[in-house]
Amino acid sequence: xxxxxxxxxxxxxxxxxxxxxxxxxxxxxxxxxxxxxxxxxxxxxxxxxxxxxxxxxxxxxxxxxxxxxxxxxxxxxxxxxxxxxxxxxxxxxxx
Length: 95
Prior knowledge:
By secondary structure, this protein is mainly alpha-helical. The protein contains four helices and no strands. The chain has helices spanning 4-23, 35-44, 46-50, 74-92. The protein starts with a helix and ends with a helix.
């Protein structure tokens, strides 16, 4: 990844999964509706493996929005969805 925030977030995710692996717990992936999960999903994709270039997170990496979301509400919809799903993710890892 490129950028301090992306690098720090992925470092924390890797650290959590190293701990989980050592303890025999299931490894976790953040939801793809979050910036961390969308970027991780991109990095693991076949397209990134063929033509990889470090990148910052951007909305092009996220899952497509439902067609019912109005143009002027897209950012708020993504933010609300990311907050909900990331809160659920954090609850699983007990943070």
